[in-house]
């Protein structure tokens, strides 16, 4: 399926693949069906799972920006499709090593080396929450498809499920508790996949260096099935219909695992066969018996598999390996149809999505007419910490809130009019106080940033002088 979508302008959009490596400074964007190279974004160096796509708000199928957390600095880089250089740079509170953006483009979550998770609101840049999520380094973060929960995996072998509503609740001061804690893995978590559907219907697949992948029911938190492999699984991808999943192994092989199997019907109906789910109730499925005869292996890579992705129609499997090679596989025939040498080292991040309409190489005339998706500077402090020197103003706001809650409707019309007039005056005062506090915060933050950058330039000039 070459043509995927029509725009109002009549332009036809196809798919693109975006990849990055931890050993070079490029993010490559190609048409993986034709082999056309569109562009390479420069000045990037990020970990596995430290690059994410930011969709336009409410448009999950239209990607507007790319965000990556730098490997050696406390910096977040933002890239647009209208230039190959960094569009914006954000200074993060500490070095981020895992990133995830919600499917609707509302929130960005970042995990750190010491097990903390930061959550920002993308439209405002507000740092909504900082909390300790794991004992060791965060290895991967994912949002569920309905953005109701955040799932984190760590090198402590644990997987935690966090309700986003509780994480964003400002009325709760203490550290949040995970809704589920899954500790059945015995070695570090390598990847997490979240199924399609709401919280009550979705399934989750996790992979680990302990040679297993586990299938979970999100509504109950129960472990459904454990799949045992002959090698460590470094990355996973599930087809959109959730009929099967693919696991990339450290032994250079890709395993295709079916989640349903055919069984003979006992009713002698016209179809003769019916499908039943594999595993369930915590059962164990041994995948070590998969071989070439069953046609469930993809063989051809010369090094360990590091990243997987699927085409829009799930007919093609994209696999990146440790030697920087990207191979395109036809799933039905298990044949490798294209091969690209994109990077000098391991492909750590791999995505497929519809080609952006403002992509510079093919729509240079259009790029000047399409506005770059707006994004605000990510704050380094939470709202409460930013206002710690302005407690009087905050207390006034709280008292105003309490006075509004104490509003009582009186049968006497004159009393009611008086209360309405009083409330209008109170709301106006609260609004003015809020604007004043916000201005103080912005001024304080800008001064801190300016001082930091000035000191940094001074240190760099001293080094150059030496």
From TrEMBL:
SMART domains: WD40. Keywords: Repeat, WD repeat. GO terms for biological process: DNA-templated DNA replication; rRNA processing. One of its GO terms (cellular component) is nuclear pre-replicative complex. The keyword Repeat applies. It comes from the Eukaryota. Belongs to the WD repeat IPI3/WDR18 family. This is 15547_t:CDS:1.
């Amino acid at each position: 399926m070459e043509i995927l979508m029509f725009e109002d302008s009549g332009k036809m959009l196809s798919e693109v693949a975006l990849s990055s490596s931890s050993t070079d400074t490029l993010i490559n964007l190609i048409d993986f069906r034709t082999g056309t190279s569109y562009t390479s974004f420069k000045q990037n160096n990020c970990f596995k799972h430290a690059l994410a796509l930011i969709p336009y708000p409410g448009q999950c199928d239209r990607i507007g920006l790319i965000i990556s957390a730098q490997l050696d600095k406390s910096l977040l880089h933002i890239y647009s499709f209208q230039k190959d250089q960094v569009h914006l740079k954000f200074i993060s509170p500490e070095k981020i090593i895992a990133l995830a953006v919600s499917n609707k483009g509302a929130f960005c979550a970042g995990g750190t080396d010491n097990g903390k998770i930061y959550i920002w609101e993308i439209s405002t840049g507000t740092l909504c929450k900082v909390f300790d999520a794991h004992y060791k380094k965060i290895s991967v973060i994912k949002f569920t498809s309905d953005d109701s929960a955040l799932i984190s995996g760590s090198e402590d072998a644990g997987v935690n499920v966090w309700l986003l509503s509780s994480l964003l609740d400002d009325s709760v001061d203490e550290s949040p508790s995970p809704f589920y804690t899954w500790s059945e893995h015995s070695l570090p978590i390598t990847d997490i996949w979240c199924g399609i559907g709401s919280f009550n219907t979705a399934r989750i697949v996790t992979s680990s260096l302990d040679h297993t992948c586990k299938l979970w029911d999100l509504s109950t938190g129960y472990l459904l099935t454990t799949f045992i492999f002959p090698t460590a699984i470094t990355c996973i991808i599930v087809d959109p219909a959730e009929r099967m999943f693919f696991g990339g192994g450290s032994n250079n092989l890709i395993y295709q695992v079916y989640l349903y199997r055919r069984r003979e019907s006992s009713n002698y109906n016209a179809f003769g066969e019916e499908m039943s789910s594999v595993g369930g109730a915590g059962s164990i499925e041994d995948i070590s018996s998969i071989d070439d005869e069953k046609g469930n292996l993809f063989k051809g890579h010369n090094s360990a598999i590091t990243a997987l992705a699927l085409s829009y129609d799930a007919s093609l499997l994209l696999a990146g390996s440790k030697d920087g090679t990207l191979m395109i596989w036809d799933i039905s025939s298990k044949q490798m149809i294209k091969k690209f040498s994109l990077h000098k080292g391991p492909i750590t991040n791999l995505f497929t999505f519809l080609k952006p309409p403002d992509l510079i190489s093919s729509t240079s005339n259009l790029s000047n007419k399409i506005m770059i998706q707006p994004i605000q500077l990510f704050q380094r402090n939470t709202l409460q910490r930013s206002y710690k020197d302005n407690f009087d103003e905050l207390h006034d706001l709280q008292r105003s809130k309490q006075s509004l809650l104490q509003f009582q409707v009186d049968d006497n019309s004159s009393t009611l009019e008086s209360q309405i007039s009083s409330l209008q005056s109170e709301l106006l005062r609260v609004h003015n106080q809020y604007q004043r506090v916000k201005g103080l915060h912005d001024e304080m933050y800008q001064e801190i940033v300016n001082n930091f950058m000035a000191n940094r330039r001074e240190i760099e000039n001293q080094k150059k002088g030496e």
